[in-house]
Amino acid sequence: MAATTPFSQLTGVVQVFIAPYGESIPDVDTTPAGNWYELGSTDGEQSVKFGGKPVWFRDNDHQGPVVGIRPEEDVSFKFRIVDLTLENWARVVSNVSKIVTGTTTLGANTKKLPVKRGSVLVEYALIFRGSAISPYGAYPGQFVFPRIMLGSEPEIKAAKNARWYLDVDGMVLEDDNQSEDDRMGWLIVKTS
Hints:
The longest helix has 7 residues, at 86-92. The two termini are 15 Å apart. It is built from one helix and 13 strands; from the N terminus they run E-E-E-E-E-E-H-E-E-E-E-E-E-E. It has one domain (15-26, 35-51, 67-189). The protein is mainly beta.
C-alpha cells in the first residue's frame, strides 16, 4: 500500500496535457476534454522549478539583514516525451498547423513537418497530472499552468530501446485573467 510505512511519499506517472491559451481548466479528477491534448507518454523526471532569488537589505543599526524582497519570480518546467509523433513534436515547436498530410507529391500514407520553427512562440495552457500524486494518499493531483510558452531548443534523441524522445522545457507566464494568487498557476490535489 502506497500510504503505508515505509512508502510515505507517493510517486507516479505524470501525464502532460496542452491546450490553447484560455481553454477552461478541467477538475483534478476529470479527464481533460475539449481542446486538451495529451502530449504523449513521459519518461524520466518531470520537474517544476520555482525561481526568484531574494535580495537582502541591511541598515547601519544591524549586522544582519533586516528585510528581504523577491524582485523577480518565475516558474519553469521540464519533461521528456517518448511518444514522439509529428503532432506531439509540432506542438512543442509551436507549429502544429504546418503538418502536411500525404499528398500526391509526398506519396500516400505520409506526413511531413517542416523543421523551421519561426520567431513567434505560441501561448498554451499546460497541465501536469497524475492519478496518484497527492501527498495525502493514492489520489489524483495536477499542476495547472493557465499560460505558458514552450522554450525548448528541441533535440531529438534515440535511446537503446530504439525509442525516440524529446526533452521539453518551458516558462510559465503571468495570466491576468486569473486571481492574484493564481496568475502563475496552482497545484491541486485530492485528499480522499
